[in-house]
Specification:
The complex is a heterodimer of chains A (112) and B (111). Chain A is mostly beta strands and 112 residues long. In chain A, 0% of the residues lie in helices and 49% in strands. Chain B is mostly beta strands. The chains are: A mainly beta (112), B mainly beta (111). The interface between A and B is medium-sized, with 24 and 18 residues.
Chain lengths: 112, 111
Protein backbone atom coordinates (compact mmCIF):
# COMPACT_ATOMS: atom_id res chain seq x y z
CA UNK A 1 0.00 0.00 0.00
CA UNK A 2 0.95 3.64 -0.11
CA UNK A 3 3.36 5.10 2.37
CA UNK A 4 3.05 8.26 4.39
CA UNK A 5 2.46 11.23 2.13
CA UNK A 6 2.97 14.90 2.89
CA UNK A 7 2.01 18.05 1.09
CA UNK A 8 3.24 20.39 -0.10
CA UNK A 9 6.73 19.07 -0.72
CA UNK A 10 8.08 22.60 -0.66
CA UNK A 11 6.66 25.78 0.80
CA UNK A 12 8.13 29.25 0.62
CA UNK A 13 6.43 31.91 2.67
CA UNK A 14 7.02 35.38 3.97
CA UNK A 15 7.74 36.10 7.58
CA UNK A 16 4.53 36.67 9.49
CA UNK A 17 2.31 34.54 7.29
CA UNK A 18 0.51 31.40 8.47
CA UNK A 19 1.22 28.02 6.88
CA UNK A 20 -0.50 24.64 6.95
CA UNK A 21 1.32 21.39 6.35
CA UNK A 22 -0.57 18.18 5.64
CA UNK A 23 0.17 14.56 6.45
CA UNK A 24 -1.66 11.47 5.19
CA UNK A 25 -0.61 8.47 7.31
CA UNK A 26 -0.54 4.85 6.25
CA UNK A 27 -4.04 3.40 6.35
CA UNK A 28 -4.68 1.57 9.60
CA UNK A 29 -1.92 3.30 11.54
CA UNK A 30 -3.38 4.73 14.73
CA UNK A 31 -0.31 6.72 15.78
CA UNK A 32 0.93 9.84 14.00
CA UNK A 33 3.98 11.95 14.76
CA UNK A 34 5.41 15.25 13.61
CA UNK A 35 9.16 15.95 13.72
CA UNK A 36 11.26 18.83 12.52
CA UNK A 37 14.68 18.58 10.87
CA UNK A 38 16.72 21.76 10.89
CA UNK A 39 20.40 22.60 10.57
CA UNK A 40 20.69 24.08 14.01
CA UNK A 41 18.57 21.64 16.02
CA UNK A 42 18.85 18.35 14.15
CA UNK A 43 15.80 16.07 14.22
CA UNK A 44 13.39 16.93 17.00
CA UNK A 45 10.00 15.68 18.08
CA UNK A 46 7.06 18.07 17.88
CA UNK A 47 3.76 16.27 18.59
CA UNK A 48 2.27 12.78 18.80
CA UNK A 49 -1.29 11.54 18.28
CA UNK A 50 -2.47 8.12 19.36
CA UNK A 51 -6.02 7.13 18.54
CA UNK A 52 -8.54 9.25 20.40
CA UNK A 53 -6.20 10.11 23.26
CA UNK A 54 -5.13 13.65 23.97
CA UNK A 55 -2.05 14.43 21.87
CA UNK A 56 1.42 14.75 23.37
CA UNK A 57 2.31 18.34 22.50
CA UNK A 58 5.45 18.49 24.61
CA UNK A 59 7.75 19.13 21.64
CA UNK A 60 5.97 22.12 20.14
CA UNK A 61 8.46 25.02 20.34
CA UNK A 62 5.92 27.82 20.85
CA UNK A 63 2.21 28.57 20.91
CA UNK A 64 2.45 29.57 17.26
CA UNK A 65 2.57 25.85 16.47
CA UNK A 66 -0.53 23.68 16.58
CA UNK A 67 -1.67 20.42 15.03
CA UNK A 68 -4.86 18.51 14.65
CA UNK A 69 -5.80 15.12 13.42
CA UNK A 70 -9.25 14.76 11.93
CA UNK A 71 -11.12 11.48 12.04
CA UNK A 72 -8.06 9.66 13.29
CA UNK A 73 -6.37 9.94 9.91
CA UNK A 74 -5.12 13.09 8.15
CA UNK A 75 -3.18 15.58 10.24
CA UNK A 76 -2.46 19.25 9.70
CA UNK A 77 0.40 21.13 11.33
CA UNK A 78 -0.22 24.86 11.45
CA UNK A 79 2.41 27.49 12.08
CA UNK A 80 1.08 30.98 12.72
CA UNK A 81 3.05 34.18 12.16
CA UNK A 82 6.01 32.29 10.75
CA UNK A 83 9.54 33.33 11.69
CA UNK A 84 12.79 32.67 9.87
CA UNK A 85 13.84 30.18 12.54
CA UNK A 86 10.83 28.06 11.56
CA UNK A 87 12.61 27.20 8.29
CA UNK A 88 13.16 23.45 8.35
CA UNK A 89 12.00 20.15 6.91
CA UNK A 90 8.86 19.00 8.68
CA UNK A 91 8.55 15.22 8.81
CA UNK A 92 5.46 13.19 9.53
CA UNK A 93 5.52 9.54 10.60
CA UNK A 94 2.86 6.98 11.39
CA UNK A 95 2.83 3.60 13.09
CA UNK A 96 0.66 0.90 14.52
CA UNK A 97 0.49 0.91 18.32
CA UNK A 98 4.09 0.60 19.61
CA UNK A 99 5.20 -0.29 16.09
CA UNK A 100 7.87 0.91 13.70
CA UNK A 101 7.49 4.51 12.64
CA UNK A 102 7.30 5.05 8.88
CA UNK A 103 8.31 8.49 7.72
CA UNK A 104 6.98 10.61 4.91
CA UNK A 105 9.20 12.54 2.49
CA UNK A 106 8.81 15.77 4.42
CA UNK A 107 7.79 19.34 3.66
CA UNK A 108 10.63 21.79 3.21
CA UNK A 109 9.53 25.13 4.66
CA UNK A 110 11.45 28.29 3.85
CA UNK A 111 10.50 31.50 5.60
CA UNK A 112 11.87 34.59 3.88
CA UNK B 1 18.68 14.13 30.80
CA UNK B 2 17.55 11.87 28.03
CA UNK B 3 19.70 12.30 24.95
CA UNK B 4 21.55 10.58 22.15
CA UNK B 5 25.08 11.51 21.09
CA UNK B 6 26.64 10.43 17.81
CA UNK B 7 30.15 10.78 16.54
CA UNK B 8 30.48 13.89 14.51
CA UNK B 9 30.76 13.71 10.78
CA UNK B 10 31.21 13.90 8.02
CA UNK B 11 32.84 10.52 7.57
CA UNK B 12 34.53 9.65 4.28
CA UNK B 13 35.74 6.14 3.52
CA UNK B 14 36.86 4.11 0.56
CA UNK B 15 34.77 1.25 -0.75
CA UNK B 16 35.24 -2.00 1.19
CA UNK B 17 36.52 -0.18 4.29
CA UNK B 18 35.28 -1.03 7.78
CA UNK B 19 32.73 1.38 9.21
CA UNK B 20 31.99 2.35 12.80
CA UNK B 21 29.68 5.18 13.77
CA UNK B 22 29.59 5.65 17.52
CA UNK B 23 26.40 6.31 19.42
CA UNK B 24 25.85 6.67 23.15
CA UNK B 25 22.68 7.46 25.02
CA UNK B 26 21.51 8.61 28.41
CA UNK B 27 18.26 7.31 29.80
CA UNK B 28 16.49 5.93 32.80
CA UNK B 29 15.82 2.27 32.21
CA UNK B 30 16.49 0.46 28.96
CA UNK B 31 14.76 2.13 26.03
CA UNK B 32 14.56 0.61 22.57
CA UNK B 33 17.37 1.85 20.32
CA UNK B 34 17.38 2.47 16.57
CA UNK B 35 19.49 3.41 13.62
CA UNK B 36 17.72 5.34 10.86
CA UNK B 37 19.16 6.13 7.46
CA UNK B 38 18.39 8.95 5.03
CA UNK B 39 19.63 8.28 1.51
CA UNK B 40 20.09 11.27 -0.81
CA UNK B 41 16.71 12.57 -1.94
CA UNK B 42 14.79 10.00 0.09
CA UNK B 43 12.88 9.95 3.34
CA UNK B 44 14.06 8.68 6.68
CA UNK B 45 13.85 4.92 7.01
CA UNK B 46 14.54 2.43 9.76
CA UNK B 47 17.81 0.53 9.27
CA UNK B 48 17.86 -1.64 12.39
CA UNK B 49 16.77 -1.74 16.00
CA UNK B 50 17.33 -3.45 19.34
CA UNK B 51 14.73 -3.57 22.07
CA UNK B 52 16.68 -4.86 25.07
CA UNK B 53 20.18 -5.10 26.46
CA UNK B 54 22.59 -7.38 24.55
CA UNK B 55 20.28 -7.54 21.54
CA UNK B 56 21.97 -7.19 18.18
CA UNK B 57 20.11 -5.48 15.38
CA UNK B 58 21.20 -6.20 11.82
CA UNK B 59 20.18 -5.29 8.27
CA UNK B 60 21.90 -4.84 4.89
CA UNK B 61 25.23 -5.90 6.41
CA UNK B 62 25.00 -3.33 9.19
CA UNK B 63 25.00 -4.37 12.84
CA UNK B 64 24.63 -2.67 16.20
CA UNK B 65 24.64 -4.22 19.67
CA UNK B 66 22.77 -2.75 22.63
CA UNK B 67 25.43 -2.39 25.35
CA UNK B 68 23.92 -1.33 28.66
CA UNK B 69 27.32 -1.33 30.42
CA UNK B 70 28.61 1.40 28.15
CA UNK B 71 25.18 2.83 27.19
CA UNK B 72 26.19 2.48 23.56
CA UNK B 73 24.71 1.32 20.27
CA UNK B 74 27.54 1.69 17.76
CA UNK B 75 26.80 1.01 14.10
CA UNK B 76 29.23 -1.21 12.20
CA UNK B 77 29.64 -2.64 8.74
CA UNK B 78 32.52 -4.79 7.62
CA UNK B 79 32.76 -3.66 4.00
CA UNK B 80 30.99 -0.51 2.89
CA UNK B 81 29.74 0.21 -0.61
CA UNK B 82 29.21 3.43 -2.50
CA UNK B 83 25.47 2.87 -2.14
CA UNK B 84 25.83 3.17 1.65
CA UNK B 85 26.48 6.90 1.28
CA UNK B 86 23.77 8.56 3.36
CA UNK B 87 23.08 10.30 6.64
CA UNK B 88 22.75 7.96 9.61
CA UNK B 89 20.80 8.78 12.76
CA UNK B 90 20.95 6.98 16.07
CA UNK B 91 17.76 7.23 18.12
CA UNK B 92 16.05 6.04 21.26
CA UNK B 93 12.46 5.87 22.36
CA UNK B 94 11.36 8.34 25.00
CA UNK B 95 8.09 8.14 26.84
CA UNK B 96 5.27 6.44 25.00
CA UNK B 97 6.65 6.36 21.49
CA UNK B 98 8.47 9.53 20.52
CA UNK B 99 11.93 9.21 19.07
CA UNK B 100 14.91 11.19 20.31
CA UNK B 101 17.57 11.44 17.61
CA UNK B 102 21.28 12.04 17.59
CA UNK B 103 22.60 14.83 15.40
CA UNK B 104 23.20 12.57 12.40
CA UNK B 105 26.41 11.47 10.70
CA UNK B 106 26.93 12.04 6.99
CA UNK B 107 28.76 9.12 5.41
CA UNK B 108 30.39 9.31 1.99
CA UNK B 109 31.88 6.23 0.36
CA UNK B 110 34.31 6.79 -2.49
CA UNK B 111 34.85 4.13 -5.17
Amino acid sequence: GAGVSQSPSNKVTEKGKDVELRCDPISGHTALYWYRQSLGQGLEFLIYFQGNSAPDKSGLPSDRFSAERTGGSVSTLTIQRTQQEDSAVYLCASSRVAGEQFFGPGTRLTVL
Amino acid sequence: GNSVTQMEGPVTLSEEAFLTINCTYTATGYPSLFWYVQYPGEGLQLLLKATKADDKGSNKGFEATYRKETTSFHLEKGSVQVSDSAVYFCARIQGAQKLVFGQGTRLTINP
